[in-house]
Amino acid sequence: KHLPVKHCIIGSYGWKVSDEVENADYVHIDKPNFGWTGWYDFHPELAMGDVEIVGLCTDICVVSNALILKAMFPEINISVDASCCAGVTPESHKAALLTMKMCQIEVTNMED
């Protein structure tokens, strides 16, 4: 409702997964909103494994879902590759990464 930019609109160029990612080993999840609480129903094995999150926007979807996953599965290792994410602004991207680090989410490839 209050998103600062239009993004990930089904059928648009921004929604398409790149060819490089399409051929990688990953799970693509189309979720109904940016902060999704249906993780356990979708993938109950998450409670047993590690999760790496990448995507747009770092400061909306990525941080929301990383924190929700941490609350739902406090013992799993959650990481975010900063070089595979982007925020609405460089400042909000960095703020989201710092927030996740403070909440015991591993952030890799973060520029100083």
Question: Which key phrases capture this entry?
Answer:
single chain; 112 residues; alpha/beta; three-stranded parallel sheet; 3 strands
State the helicity in percent bands. 25-40%
The proportion of strand residues reads: 15-25%
Structural class: alpha/beta
Mean pLDDT level = 83
Largest beta sheet: strand ordering: 1-2-3
Structure explained in plain terms:
With about 110 residues, the chain is α/β, with parallel strands linked by helices. Helix content is about 30%, strand content about 15%. It has four helices and three strands. The chain has helices at about 20, 40, 60-70, 90-100, and strands at about 50-55, 80-85, 105-110. Strands 1-2-3 form a three-stranded parallel β-sheet, covered by helices on one side. The longest helix has 15 residues, at about 60-70. The protein is globular and about 35 Å long. About 20% of the residues are buried. The model has no long low-confidence stretch (mean pLDDT about 85).
